[in-house]
Design a protein that fits this description.
- By secondary structure, the protein is α+β, with helices and mostly antiparallel strands.
- Helix content is 31%, strand content 30%.
- It has 8 helices and 13 strands.
- Strands 1, 2, 3, 4, 5, 6, 7, 8, 9, 10, 11, 12 and 13 form a 13-stranded mixed β-sheet that branches.
- Strand 1 and strand 2 form a beta hairpin.
- Helix 1 packs antiparallel against helix 2 and helix 6 runs antiparallel to helix 7.
- The chain is globular.
Length: 317
Amino acid sequence: MPQNTPHSSAKNWARDYQNWVEQFDYPWFIQAAWATGVVLLLLAGWLWWSYGSVKSYDVFWGTINNSLATNAVSKQVSSSSGGTTIALSQQISLGGQNAVTSRSVITQGQGDQQTVVKTESIATPTTNYSRYTNITTRQSKAAAVLNFKPILNIWGKEAVNASGNGSFAQAIFDIIPIADLQPAQRQAVVASMKTGNVYTVDYSAVKKHHQNGHLIYDYTLAIAPDGYVNILKQIDNDMNLNQLTNLDASQYQGAVAVKVTVSIDAHARQLVGLSFDGSNQTESFSNYGYAPTIQIPAKTVPLSQLQNQLAATLGSK
């Protein structure tokens, strides 16, 4: 049989298969039956891929399962509030190396009152590393006297406690958690989500559209805060991260449900975006599976030292 069959189009596959069958001295009706069977098989596969594989319920929970089996993903966050905008780009790596790299641009004020701070950070389950890479201000008086050079490109370091203050935990414990769990662990987490009604979803109200050639489903979710925290603690325990040991889910009982719109690639069953109801924060996800090696800083100072220096410099204007 032709060796290039797996890489041919469906049409070429059927033609090559027919040519291969004709090499044998079978009666014509047997050859015709084989060829017809191939066409029907391909048609059945196409119909399943186009319709059967994209039921809104299956797509949603398939995406949850895939998110819990993620070794790497890129995440972009955009938010604005009170005259401050934040653009954050993150690379999450799990499994072989549990780490998150982040680059942020924080803009405060406008025109002559604008200040822009750029940072870079690396987070592991035990440590946060951060540095200021650039600070600029358009405030005429401040720009003339402030000198930020002594605190630029110096890595600050701080230990992470067990109450979820780590940047690593904040990156992976999203509305749909990102984790790298074993199959049995994923099954248990998904079962807990369903029995605990963590997500309330109206599957009949899913909006469908195409984006860059991909079929996208938009879901509106209502998330129960206490059940959601319990799920995060379960994942934290499964991955031996010890990020949320001191977080008490009972403190969130009776809290108002969080409403979020989630966008999912229906065929890939991957989260591609989300937005928070009543908030100017949006997130997008891409580059699943790409996990570059992250270099941990060797030379650091206490992060509090950098923060105090920045505060002192700003206070001197």
